[in-house]
Request: fold
Amino acid sequence: MKEKFIVTASPHIKDKMDVRSMMRGVIYALIPAVAASIYFYRGKAIGIIVVSILAALATEAIFQKVRHRKVTLLDGSALVTGLLLALVLPPSLPLGIVVLGAVIAIALGKQIFGGLGYNIFNPALVGRAFLLATFPVALTTWTHPLTLDAVTTATPLGLWKFQGMTTPLLNLFLGQTSGSLGESSAVALLLGGAYLLWKRYIDWRIPLAYFVTVLIFGGVTHLLNPAKFASPLFQVLVGGFFLGALFMATDPVTTPLTKKGRWIFGFGSGILLIIIRLWGGLPEGVMYSILLMNIVVPLINRYTRTKPFGVR
Reply:
């Protein structure tokens, strides 16, 4: 019998996972965090989440229509961007500002580079960075969970950095602390992250490197000056660390392609996070640590790429 050879372009090994299934998995993983935010902030959380998602979807469709591209709302990428943006916003934020943040996240964070797969920054973080620079007061006005009283600089990180007060670790783990919607409960984010790792939607190297770096670097600074620097467990549980480490830093488009590069990305993000938190002007540094590492991803890919088979 004659053997038939089929000559095609790479890739020759294909997986069942595609963009739609991966985005669907991220949405499933975010359900615990969304549920926790709605439990703590009720209607305010629902309003921000719904408005952010709708604005992101509308912006994506408009830009693709203007560019005469196929509208790809069903792949779920714009929905995930809108959802992640909502989870990094304070519950008291006016809905008009939420719409602006979603438009910036899709337009400047994604479509201006050419769409999905071409952006160099995490779109949701681009949206939040823009809002923080434009509306700093609104982005730092927080709401007490359950009581829904609006106050300023009352997050655990703000209390620690500016007043020297630490929040009990159990409260940080379970929730009941002021912050962004996605900071409501660390255990909810861990459940979602465990699902992503179990389904292999994300690579474990970046979260592990991020986590270990923050623990070690935070632990060293705490040992050197316990009165000034908080414990490493506090640094891990507080703020948006788990949301950033599990859902933002693992974005396959804006993170390194190589295994060695992912270790470097995680280590660099952890070091930048501790530097910003301890010596920066802002109490939180997850957003900037990831965005700054996004900048050097092409350089990391260049110097960590593997050699082709047979090449010295």
In short: Residues 43-66 form the longest helix (24 residues). The longest strand covers residues 141-143. The mean pLDDT is 87. Strands lie at 141-143, 150-152.
